[in-house]
Amino acid sequence: MSAGSIGTVRPRSDARAKVTGTAVYTADVIPDDPLAGVVLRSPHAFARILSVDTARAAAMPGVRAVVYSGNVPAKPLDFGIKDQHLFPIDFARYRGEPVAAVAADTETQARAAAKAIDIVYEVMDPVTNIEQALAPGAQLVHPAWKSYEHSGERILRENVCAVNRIRRGDVDAALANAAVVVTSRFTFSGGLPGYLEPRAAVAQAGPDGTLTVWCGSQAPYSNRTEMAEFFELAPAKVRFINQFVGGAFGGKILMAPEWFAAALALRCDRPVRMAWSRHEDNLNAAPRHGGTATFTSCADADGTLRAMRASFAFDTGAYIGYGGGSALIATMLASAPYRIPNLDLEATLVYTNKQVAGPVRAPGGPQANFAKELHLDEIARKLGIDPLEFRLKNAWREGDESPSGQRLTSVSVVDVLQKAADAIGWDKPRASGSGRGIGATWWFSSCGLSEARVEVLTDGRVRVISGNPEIGTGSAAQALPIIVADALGIDPLGVEVVLADTGDSAEDGGVHGSTSTFSAGQAAGAAAAEARARLLDRAESLLEARHDDLDVRDGCVYVVGAPDSKATFAQLAAHGDEPVIGRGTAPEMGDPEIDNDLVQAHGFAAWPAASFTATAAEVTVDKETGRVDVLHIATAQDVGFAFNPAGVTGQIEGGAVQGLGWALTEGLVYDGAVLRDPDFKHYLLPTAVDAPRITAMIVECPSVEGPRGMKGVGEPPVTTPAAAIGNAIRDACGAVPHDTPMTPERVWRALQK
Amino acid sequence: MQPVHLCVNGLETDVEVHPLETLLHTLRDRIGLNGTKEGCGTGYCGACTVLVDGDAVNACLLLAVDADRKEVVTIEGLAGDAGALHPVQAAFVENGGLQCGFCTPGMILSAASLLAATPDPSDDEIRAGISGNLCRCTGYQSIVASVHDAARRLRESGRSGERPGPRAHIRSRA
Amino acid sequence: MQYFEPNFVNEALVVLERFGPRAKALAGGTRLGPSLRGDCGDVVALVNLKRIASLAAITSEHGRMRIGALVTAAELAHSPSIVAAAPLLSLAAASMGSRQLRALASIGGNICSGDAASDLTTALLACDAACVFAALNHGERRLALSDVLVPGGTICAPGELLVAVEVPRCDGLTAFEKMTTRRGFEMALVAVAVTITMEGARAVSVRIALAGAGPTCQRATNAERFATAESPDGYGREWGERVGAVAAERDAAPDSDERAGADYRRHLVAVLTARALRTALGRRA
Description:
The complex is a heterotrimer of chains A (753), B (174) and C (285).
Chain A: H1 15-20, E1 35-41, E2 47-53, H2 55-58, E3 63-68, E4 91-92, E5 98-104, H3 107-115, E6 118-123, H4 130-134, E7 160-168, H5 171-176, E8 180-188, E9 200-205, E10 211-215, H6 220-230, E11 238-242, H7 257-265, E12 272-275, H8 278-284, E13 290-299, E14 305-317, H9 324-333, E15 342-351, H10 365-383, H11 387-394, H12 413-424, E16 434-443, E17 451-456, E18 462-466, H13 475-488, E19 495-498, H14 516-543, E20 550-553, E21 556-559, E22 562-568, H15 569-574, E23 580-585, E24 599-600, E25 611-621, E26 628-638, H16 645-664, E27 670-671, E28 674-675, E29 693-699, H17 721-733, H18 744-752
Parallel strand pairs in A: 1-12, 10-11, 14-15, 18-19, 26-29
Antiparallel strand pairs in A: 1-5, 2-4, 2-6, 3-5, 7-15, 7-24, 8-13, 9-10, 9-12, 13-14, 16-25, 17-18, 17-23, 20-21, 21-22, 25-26, 27-28
Helix pairs in contact in A: 9-10, 10-17, 13-14, 16-17
Chain B: E1 2-8, E2 11-17, H1 23-30, E3 49-52, E4 55-58, E5 71-73, H2 87-94, H3 104-117, H4 123-129, H5 141-156
Chain C: E1 2-4, H1 9-19, E2 23-26, H2 32-38, E3 45-48, E4 58-61, E5 64-68, H3 73-78, H4 80-85, H5 87-95, H6 99-104, H7 107-112, H8 119-126, E6 130-135, E7 139-144, E8 149-150, E9 153-154, E10 161-168, E11 173-179, E12 190-199, E13 202-211, E14 218-219, H9 221-229, H10 237-251, H11 262-281
Parallel strand pairs in C: 1-3, 2-3
Antiparallel strand pairs in C: 4-5, 5-10, 6-7, 6-10, 8-9, 11-12, 12-13, 13-14
């Protein structure tokens, strides 16, 4: 078995554990003698908190600890705006907001005690939607907003907690002289991340000031740092031990049960376990942002786009949390990946008394692309130009400028559009009742802090220790072994992946922002290279040969030309005072230059190692009922260089169906500001019979910045399917809803107009 | 509390359960078999799927008392002697039919029971047969490929139509 | 809360009589289980019916099928005797829930839930089904299913138990149409079940049942009368559409809710009724 595993299709290293049921997820972690932790939640969407009295609860049978605003640190959590505390002090701002927590010997006792916590609320009228929040004289979700600390150029005013803008040229002049002008309006529902594993955590405080947390987090190192800082513990004494994660999709970056289990554990001498039901997880879940978009654009008669004005408003719920990304990304996507010289793009984030919205996979992506691509098809139709032709004509080329003035390199827009279109059979005759649609996007890559160690042990085993969690994508369990094995000339299945544990000191920024293989892969690659060099050092002495005369493969180091002169990894590891260890970090990746005059209050307008993705869809529409059947989704994604092709295909296929769900069946239902329980009976995730045939095409147009030209993988696949499906619906039946989800009823209503 | 005589993965065992206790709870919290997962607790995600007398059911709904004296097979009961993977398990590994793995135990059991009844299913039959098992990660295509491959593996090893689970019953431990 | 596992119907009836409305009978457990585990409320007695063998039996007598209340949707879908004698019921049973849910859900539990979107109840209405209730004071009483349904439940009194459903052998042409948001398992937005009895070239009886079009599943009696009164144009597409229009306009009484608007539901009644009639007639030999 020779080297060269990079770029090959491999089984996952965690597959066996997962198919046999031996993989451990956080709810499977049962410590000795645990206490049960239970959260008390606000029954009101908006209420002033007049008093909290825990005395009755604390005295109840089996109760070991009660925590609330009065006995945890009062410092605010910092998400760029310090608008939130661990437990609210002055107002409960959304129904379900955690206001206290109890640890007791049994869950029944803990629940009974939670009910006995006396909180006096003064109920207020909640702010239920964007329109209400922005109306003059509106009720403020944060009446004391003026006193909030916030960072840098963040805009915070009444119920608006972020506004960003990208502007270039003169949109109004262009609109005044245009051959065709089109205005389109859209609304988007929010949506759940929809991970199958409800959240859980176990926390245990030690007598020596230690705190250990078992959890399934996307960012255990960041969590550890935040937890340590909040409770004023030495970071080295706080340990987050990550388990396998049963899906996350952006919903397990911020701590939730980890906070409450830890807060309780710090007041107990037994571990506290909190394993949420789906119902409770839903009360806490941070949905994808819902909101609105209005686009006005113009073009010449020959189809050249001239100007675009786009305006987004996102309902971020009661606190800003990690909601800022949606607004930042929406303006970056609104006109992309097309050449439009005159732009005025704006996005606003609005407070309401809803559950806090969060950074669900590709925040702002499906929403912005849905609006933009349906809008562009309207223009193309008005001009009588084929939608694919229209896009190819206006697509970015190498060396073009992004909206914020970044010079674009490794541009593959035309390629991905053409491939997606070919795969769907764009030019083939359409069967009656069927239609095709297409959409494209760009996306960023991230390279975050990441450290790794590769160890060759004295029994010959090879391990990679990375802080990158395995949430399912395979960035840890599949990509890291491929990269390490490649450097060491062994089979990837011979590389053990140690799940993220902050006690192992291999810091990693976490899984989010399409960063994992990019960052952790580089760190692991560097660590493996160093381990290889250490093996060669020892082999030099053992085999009396020089580096240049040595070859590493199949778990041994060989003298070139003398196959009997070799040493096994085990022998080399034993030949020395310590095992063979290589360390590596991900290099810092700088941001490309932009023109700062073009952007306002936008901290995310430079996208390194930018990727390009296009999706084409084929659907049939039953015009009598409005039911849409998606027959085929074809996505071409430029990943620059595919270290782990199976992982890329998995992301494309999974993203296609997530995108389909958001487009057609997944809708959140609110009674005013209160989210109706999105249990899986009512919140409709796509099943196997809803999922179409998917053609996943990996395109490699290497980036300048990424390792071997890599571009980030995880998010783009979910950003384009809804756009393609929407355009396909319009193509099939002559109408398309401008509101998601595009349920049969909405399609039917669109047809009646 | 009610006494219940369970036969799980070929092993007979007596436990005391609360009348409203689900088989899922008994498997995980009393018997210590954690492979069966709770995804929703209401029968809508299929993550808790186990086989009871060969039928795929939601363990989060079936009461432990109603599993009395029935043959229960969980994911832990599929692998053969010396940990040899069942053909369905091997197929999922080789075909990448999983990512986060949380739906996987239920999905595999669902697929295994489907194949026992329909040894050579079409794409549509596979999708319909596993439509009670939600997966959020894979988009299902690799799962369908895995089930097709599993059908082939069962055929080639002469095990088509075989009821999934341990071949031998072990009478032991009260 | 006390728990009972009777082996005979009379044992169950004794407990139900004793505790009245504070007793709950447990069948498949797909609905009652999760709700009781959430909060027992004032339920003090739980009667698990599944040890009562007679409730799981399917028998046939004088051209009528007697289906025990515990018979599962899976059994209804696959039982050769049901497939032969009441194919509409098999079809509806096969379309409800997931494979796993069908293995647990019982016909009795489904009817007693009073769910206005129930596939099984709708099919049973179109099969002219009757419910058999037992109680200590009256033995068995038999009522037409259409007389038994009330919003959210049935007229089953405290102390009474639904023990069986009786369905006459079906000699007609049947069809079942169901509309949902996704293709995977989901409660119907609207569903329509039809049975057409032909005598020669004439439809002498048409039964049309609706789900999701009112406070309970219901027979579309106006549409049924219209269907048989209509001069046949060979019972073509136009006939079906006219019958569907009557069902939508005069029988359906849907509310708007978060799942669908009333006007859309009405429209679906028209469309699905027409389709069901067309499919049923397409089964003519």
